[in-house]
Design goal:
alpha+beta, 8-stranded mixed sheet, 4 helices, 3-stranded mixed sheet
């Protein structure tokens, strides 16, 4: 497993790099996890409906090939793109979704935040507010795209969309949950997230096929 910490990077060029990596890899290619942040951008999944983008303003909207509806990415939000041969790990798509969600829940618990996934809506929630989202593409048994965890970011842009296609869905962050008195080390959150995901990739299940799993907010 190769870990890449890419910092703040452009969305579209990173998306293209994920697709290129997936197209060019073979059975011997080492899996990679990319930890990064993006400049402000809305991304619209394959099932995305235009009416869920309410007032994007000066933030670009990019149509992408993951599952799900519209979400926002911006500085202070950790993304982990999971370039994983799920067949090698004997994981099905649902297994991978569960692994991601459980890893996020475990990381949040380390920071004193009680969170849980919802079976009817992929992602992780704190008291009904979404704190992390996921959206995946699986092609030829290999995943790309991944997860987004709101750590210490401006949440206002989420009010410009219906997150995940759900009108009125509230969004939160690690910093908001911990409160202003807390000193939050965003790098520590990223490192903990990577550690949990790497540990979880020894899971087992049924191998997956081409699919897009959503989504996102």
């Amino acid at each position: 497993m190769r870990i890449r910490k890419l910092g703040l990077v452009d969305y579209q060029s990173t998306w293209q790099a994920m697709k290129d990596f997936t197209d060019q890899r073979d059975a011997s290619t080492e899996d990679e996890l990319w930890l990064l942040q993006h400049a402000p951008v809305f991304t619209q999944g394959q099932a995305g409906k235009a009416e869920h983008v309410l007032a994007p303003g000066d933030i670009p909207v990019v149509q992408v090939d993951r599952g799900g509806q519209v979400t926002y990415h911006g500085p202070g939000q950790w993304l982990v793109y999971m370039l994983v041969d799920i067949r090698r790990h004997n994981l099905g798509v649902r297994d991978l979704v569960d692994l991601i969600e459980h890893s996020i829940v475990s990381v949040l618990a380390q920071f004193g935040i009680a969170a849980a996934p919802r079976r009817d809506a992929p992602g992780v929630y704190v008291d009904g507010q979404k704190i992390a989202s996921l959206g995946l593409r699986v092609r030829r048994g290999c995943s790309y795209h991944g997860l987004a965890l709101n750590v210490d970011m401006d949440l206002e842009p989420f009010s410009r969309i219906n997150p995940c296609g759900h009108e009125g869905l509230q969004v939160t962050s690690v910093s908001r949950q911990l409160g202003s008195a807390s000193t939050l080390d965003i790098d520590a959150v990223g490192d903990a997230l990577l550690a949990e995901l790497v540990a979880g990739l020894d899971g087992s299940g049924s191998a997956g096929n081409d699919s897009a799993i959503g989504t996102i907010a």
